[in-house]
Amino acid sequence: MSVRELQALFRPGGLVVAGAPDDPLVRAVRRNLAPADGRLVVAVERLDELTALPELCVLVAAPDRLPGLLAEAGRRGARAVILAGGHAPDAAACAALRTAARGAGVRVVGPASSGIAVPARRLIAGAFHRPPPAGSVALVAQSATLAGAVVDWAIRRDAGFSHVAVLGDQADVGFADVIDYLAGQAECRSILLAIDRLTDARRFLSAARAAARLKPVIVLRTGRHEDGDGVTPDAVFDAAFRRSGLLRVRTLETLFDALGTLASGVPIRGDRLAIVANGRGIGRLAADALGDQVYAGGIGRLAQPAGLSNPLDLDEGADGAAYAGALTRLAGDPGVDAVLLLHAPTALTGAGDVARGIAAVLPEVRTPVLTSWLGERDGERAASDLAHHHVPVYETPDRAVRAFLHRVRQRRNLDLLTETPPSVPDAPPADDAAARAALAAQDAVRLLGAYGVTVGGPPPPGVELTLRAAVDPLFGPVLWAGTVAVLPPLNPALARETLLRVPALRAAAEEERGAAVDAAALLLVRLSQLVLERESVADLVLAPVRIGPCGVWVGGASLRRLPPGAVRMPPAIRPYPRELEAPLALADGRRFLVRPLVPEDEPALRGLFARLTADEIRLRFFAPKAELSHATAARMTQLDYDREMGLAVAEPGPPGAAALHGVVHLSVDADGERGEFAIMVAHDAGGLGFGPVLMRRILDHARARGVKEVFGEVLMENRAMLRLCQALGFARRCLPEDPGVVHVTRAP
């Protein structure tokens, strides 16, 4: 079913609620019915009361009647159905509803959903206890009660929502579907997820990674202390959220703080905080809160502004001019990434005067500002003065510090999505024959040896931990460094970041780790490669492992294989598709490699761009472009192979060192049905046939993925590209709204 059909949920042409009028849930849904932007809104007891149904139906009925009602709704013209009411009794009931929905051609939210709301469009389709207010944050939750608590909080704080979706048991529509939809909605500026369980980890991570590149995404997961066989540890969820660029919070209080921070739109460029207060006590309170977070394994630090103490005590008589002067000076200091202004009530200066003094200089301040006003009335007065400058006001200093760290953590997670990691040193490939023999004998030491990992020898000094490759029932292969989890595939940068989250390594002196952590990161990368390539591995433990001044030492290893015939859960993040690599030999004897792009290719991609002429750049990007920025190049090389692909004609050699002569990208929509291509070939490689080779290979890939249509936009003057498209069988269509562009399409 298509994500595009979610329009029937969030922008329906009409709405009907069907159910017994005396049912309390039906009464609650009917109370929320309103003329939604002039659309048809009706209530009936039975679907057959209407000759034709509007696009969206809200159904309240006994579980055993739901499959039949879904079939009837589809026959009568509905395209989306919300199942309000009780939970599905078991997984089999959810599967039956999913089958019925697909057979009827409808999208289904629920069962146990309290509905969908788009407040700005006056669409309240469900049993919300209070209509959600309009705003710019989207809320997607499983639990109706948790969603209700968040909506109540927003009402009390004059915050609002662009969309609200309570998914219930997710028989059909799940988190990934809604995230994909919201990522493309301009009125949604940030997304809040309240998760209990996931059903499709790969789809969720793919959707979350795509959305997090475009807008902030916060996630709150309940049930994180559940344990037992077949239960995914919370550390694995934590690894998945971090790998996706999501900001995780753990309580409702921190969720509300993070939501307020996002609503303010405060950007944070680094982790150095300057604190200004009208008293030494409250300044130290904020500094202690920051120190507590760092001691507990968090991030963030006190800035060291030139010539000023931190925290900076302005004294209890400080007025608006004193605060404004301190803010202006700190905002101009390159060692300060954000400023926290604290104010406690005094008899000497009014809160309004201080807030107005701060507000007067805010238009010239480019450094992010957060505030905390400790008196309730003072806080209310300050909030009204600072709101139109998007400066958040927090009730306590520690909550302001926590909000600052939310932004720092979110920025760090996004950096992991867009950084260019260093190249993996040229290492010999695994000895396949030796690895197969070791697996047959269940010999962990020989298996590691096939991947270049030596086990045994005299133990050196260093930090001791256990490395492990295991298989999770939801996320597939997972790597563990002590108690820290990470999802493969890994590169050295991600592996190093994982190791430095191990408390013992983070606390060790620099001389005790240093280059040894780099060596341990390569070991973790090799372990990632092993667990992805050897699908019969169920559990591989390296213990003890020591990381210290002498390098990395592995003292022992154990291995457990899957039972014969068992199929392992695939990795949640699709690994590098080595099967798409193919040699390319030219008639003159030169040899190249056609292969997927990897993050290490960013410098080579920018080098390829530098070889293009101004006209070639304009034909490829539809506008002049002086250079390929780091952000754009990283986006073109940091690929989610689950929904996009980039193929390159490369010189032989490791990525990062090998030049690229041409690249083609295919971006597939969330449904996997249509993909848009874009191609770039170096000017000095013209006439070598790289363009046709890349286009044929990407069409082959699209066909193998089940993509139904490949399309592209080509400038009318790009005659060479139009000739290539014609030779490959693309149909051409001119767009009336853009006469200079030709739309080309073909089935792969």
* Distance linking N and C termini: 20 Å
Number of helices: 24
Helix content: 25-40%
The Cα radius of gyration reads 29 Å
Report the average pLDDT across residues: 87
Structural class: alpha/beta
Query: How many domain units?
Result: 4
**So what's the CATH class of the largest domain?**
Alpha Beta
Oligomeric form: single chain
**CATH domain topology of the largest domain:** Rossmann fold
Which architecture of the largest domain does the CATH hierarchy give at level 2? 3-Layer(aba) Sandwich
Beta-strand content bin: 15-25%
Annotation, overall tally of beta strands: 32
Largest sheet descriptor: 8 strands, mixed
Task: Explain what this protein looks like in three dimensions.
The protein has 4 domains: 3-263, 3-Layer(aba) Sandwich (Rossmann fold), CATH 3.40.50; 266-418, Succinyl-CoA synthetase domains (Rossmann fold); 432-561, D-amino Acid Aminotransferase, Chain A, domain 1 (2-Layer Sandwich), CATH 3.30.470.20; 579-746, Aminopeptidase, CATH 3.40.630. The longest helix is centred in the middle third of the chain and has 22 residues, at 397-418. Helix 10 runs parallel beside helix 14 and helix 15 (432-440) runs antiparallel to helix 16 (444-450). It is globular, with a radius of gyration of 29 Å. 45% of the residues are buried. The strands form 5 sheets. Strands 25-26-27-28-29-30-32-31 form an 8-stranded mixed beta sheet, sandwiched between helices. It has a 7-stranded mixed beta sheet with strand order 7-6-9-8-10-11-12, with helices on both faces. It has 748 residues and is of the alpha/beta class. The protein has 24 helices and 32 strands.
